[in-house]
Amino acid sequence: MRAAGTRLEHGLGSRAQPRQAGGRAAGARDWASPPAGREKCQIRRGKGSLLGICGQPPRPCAPCDVMSNSWRWPAAPALLLAGPAVPRPLLPWPPAPLSMKVFRRKALVLCLGYVLLLLLTMLNLLDYKWHKEPQQCNEPPPARRAPSSPQQPHFQPRSDIRSLYRPPAPPPRQRQLVYVFTTWRSGSSFFGELFNQNPEVFFLYEPVWHVWQKLYPGDAVSLQGAARDMLSSLYRCDLGVFQLYNTAGAGKNLTTLGIFGAATNKVICSSPLCPAYRKEVVGMVDDKVCKKCPPQRLSLLQDECLKYHTLVIKGVRVFDLAVLAPLLQDPALQLKVIHLVRDPRAVASSRIKSRHGLIRESLQVVRSRDPRIHRMPLLDASHKLNSKKEGGGGSDYHALGAMEVICSSMAKTLQTALRPPDWLKNNYLVVRYEDLVVDPIKTVRQVYGFVNLVVSPEMEKFALNMTSGPGYSSKPFVVSARNATQAVSAWRTALSFQQIKQIEEYCHQPMAVLGYERVNSPEEVKDLSKTLLRKPRL
């Protein structure tokens, strides 16, 4: 409360008329009517009373009634009691009333928005109806057709119905994956050329060689899992798996020329990776020319792999077909296996001939022999040391010893093929090397039909020329044209009778299934007019 004599500004209106009888007590006034103006009043503090100079009791301003737009004053205060004045807070001036124009403006904007939305919806419906059927405004009306005969009523399908029943697009061509399952010295290099020369085939020559070299001196059986994992990656064209088994040294990236067999690979030696040859031209490549090709990144070879619909891998380091069972059961791969076999006596003869080139592989295979199995002595001591003319020597011991493991694994595979499980049915084909060199055209057609390839005249001519050479090649690791008769019967003059009987003891089970007859005397071996082939059981 301010001191006595302090001036306050307060809005007061004109006095209203006092009520009639029955009204309020004396001194009470009704201030319901709005003030006519604003008057300034002075409030003085008197002795024991508080009086207004204007003759009216002081009171605060009342807020205005927004809805009625009129002033409403509070009721007149009661009679002032004697005593000190009680301070009263000053109320602020009432805010300005909210104009109705704001509500009208917002309502108008909202209505315009709804009208615009409705208009756009109608235009969209009209546009859809307009484009649903093509409009032909400038074209002349179609000529009237003659009425069709009752026997052949004419039906004119609607265009929209015809579009719904269009023939579906043909599915993408499924890739054909093939594994040539064989062993060393079985004619696999020549057989692999039937795919390497095909312009529609991406061929890899013994890629598991990298696994054996990197994990040496591991035995053959312990490396089977790593070999299967590598094949699984290669069949998906993931050629980066070669880098895992890179033997070039740490920090050096493997290139296309570092892959085993790159010097004779038709894809690596042909355009676009190398300008030396063209893949569509059937013919052997010169390894000396291919070695001069520029080394390319494996990613470029991987891109080439993805372009081919047929991928063929030839390998000699997977011994048991059961190792490939997870790949054959994978529906994403749809793998097929071609089992290339050869007379075990011819295989052993070729291994002895190339014993120095296969000594490392022979040691890895011999380490896989089961020590619990009883074996006959391979050769007597005098033969191993002195009779090198007949193929003796220390290297022959490992070459012939490897045949025990090879034939044992072959026997397991053939037993599985005789009673094939579901994952092997229609996915397995046995091809005898002897049938290939004697009748190449028939065998090539059979093999190509199994893997859904077409035999071109160029491929038939190539296979015929490779089996009509002048003689038997003296180079064990070179693919060349050779005489078919000499290729089939060369072992009969190269092995001793003792060696033949030793091999027959190891391999009599697969020989019986594949149709290779055993010999009973040295004279029977030397009689080349007598064939030792019969129809196989597969």
Automatic annotation (TrEMBL):
SUPFAM superfamilies given in the database record: P-loop containing nucleoside triphosphate hydrolases
Region annotation (Disordered) ranges: 1-39, 136-172
MF (Gene Ontology): N-acetylglucosamine 6-O-sulfotransferase activity
Primary site of residence: Golgi
Catalysed conversion reaction: 3-O-{beta-D-galactosyl-(1->3)-[N-acetyl-beta-D-glucosaminyl-(1->6)]-N-acetyl-alpha-D-galactosaminyl}-L-seryl-[protein] + 3'-phosphoadenylyl sulfate = 3-O-{beta-D-galactosyl-(1->3)-[6-O-sulfo-N-acetyl-beta-D-glucosaminyl-(1->6)]-N-acetyl-alpha-D-galactosaminyl}-L-seryl-[protein] + adenosine 3',5'-bisphosphate + H(+); 3-O-{N-acetyl-beta-D-glucosaminyl-(1->3)-beta-D-galactosyl-(1->3)-N-acetyl-alpha-D-galactosaminyl}-L-seryl-[protein] + 3'-phosphoadenylyl sulfate = 3-O-{6-O-sulfo-N-acetyl-beta-D-glucosaminyl-(1->3)-beta-D-galactosyl-(1->3)-N-acetyl-alpha-D-galactosaminyl}-L-seryl-[protein] + adenosine 3',5'-bisphosphate + H(+); 3-O-{N-acetyl-beta-D-glucosaminyl-(1->3)-beta-D-galactosyl-(1->3)-N-acetyl-alpha-D-galactosaminyl}-L-threonyl-[protein] + 3'-phosphoadenylyl sulfate = 3-O-{6-O-sulfo-N-acetyl-beta-D-glucosaminyl-(1->3)-beta-D-galactosyl-(1->3)-N-acetyl-alpha-D-galactosaminyl}-L-threonyl-[protein] + adenosine 3',5'-bisphosphate + H(+); a 3-O-{beta-D-galactosyl-(1->3)-[N-acetyl-beta-D-glucosaminyl-(1->6)]-N-acetyl-alpha-D-galactosaminyl}-L-threonyl-[protein] + 3'-phosphoadenylyl sulfate = 3-O-{beta-D-galactosyl-(1->3)-[6-O-sulfo-N-acetyl-beta-D-glucosaminyl-(1->6)]-N-acetyl-alpha-D-galactosaminyl}-L-threonyl-[protein] + adenosine 3',5'-bisphosphate + H(+)
Subunit structure: Homodimer; disulfide-linked. Homodimerization is not essential for enzyme activity.
Protein name (Swiss-Prot/TrEMBL): Sulfotransferase
